Amino acid sequence: MCYFNPILIFLACLLLLTACVAPSLQSAGNSQPETASPQLRVMSYNIHHANPPGRKGVIDLEAIAEVIRKEAVDLVALQEVDVRQPRSGNVHQAQALAEMLGMHHYFAKAIDFGGGEYGVAILSRYPLSDTIKVELPKEDSPNAEGRVLALATVQLTEGQHIRFGSTHLDIQSSANRQQQVETINAAAADELPFILAGDLNDYPDSPAIKALDQVFQRTCLTNCEATFPQDEPDRIIDYIAVTHASKLKVESHRVVPESYASDHRPVVAVFELPTASVSR
């Protein structure tokens, strides 16, 4: 007759359990958590002075704010922005959007219009500095509407900066657009990474965009979605691009399927930000 000591059985089971668990604990203790690279979400949006194209005379700035809010972007390049114009309720639209979204802003006037100002703007979740307006040339068609580049330095974190630009190129003259791109290319000759976004009013195979490609990498190069008009888009005229020298990696590009708030669809790109590339 065999006799089993329950104490010995308990101790044997305990030793076996410890042997199985210990390697797992050791492995867990030695593993290092993966750290995701920092990202930057950027939008380009021609807001049509917040007038939904299907509602003549109506201004719906909250609809524009909601589009931006839903995309959770860090930087926004705005075009066709009204400032203190009677047609849009004498509101400073860039400032109002910044307040609605809890962002910083910079507005650059392109022209005086309708008793107020009209131009492009930048919204940013990060502090802005070194803001400047660059007048863009229109030598081929001097009577064309004035166009500008809004530029700012964006402080991402302490000691980390990029340059960000918002623009809206001439609609009348291809030669004007090419000259304007060349001026932007010259402005991008900076040691900081430079992201450009805007309504460039030209197609990907145009001389102006080919000139842009000499200095910038567009965030979409093939099989890109159309951005205009908003209801049945059939052309690409809105872009986001980054300087070749910046080493910022484009993680994604998409056109937001939004068809109410403006006559353009917004474009959103996500960048990976290597720390070494954004130090000033």
Automatic annotation (TrEMBL):
Q: Listed GO molecular functions?
A: endonuclease activity; exonuclease activity
Q: Which Gene3D superfamilies match?
A: Endonuclease/exonuclease/phosphatase
Q: Mind listing the GO biological process terms from this record?
A: GPI anchor biosynthetic process
One Pfam family this chain carries?
Exo_endo_phos
Highest rank taxon of the organism: Bacteria
Signal peptide from the UniProt entry: 1-28
Q: Which residues form the Endonuclease/exonuclease/phosphatase domain?
A: 43-264
Keywords, alphabetical: Endonuclease, Exonuclease, Hydrolase, Nuclease, Signal
CC per GO annotation: membrane
- Descriptive protein name: Endonuclease/exonuclease/phosphatase family metal-dependent hydrolase
**Which species is this UniProt entry from?**
Pontibacter virosus
Q: Highest lineage ranks of the organism? A: Bacteria, Pseudomonadati, Bacteroidota, Cytophagia, Cytophagales
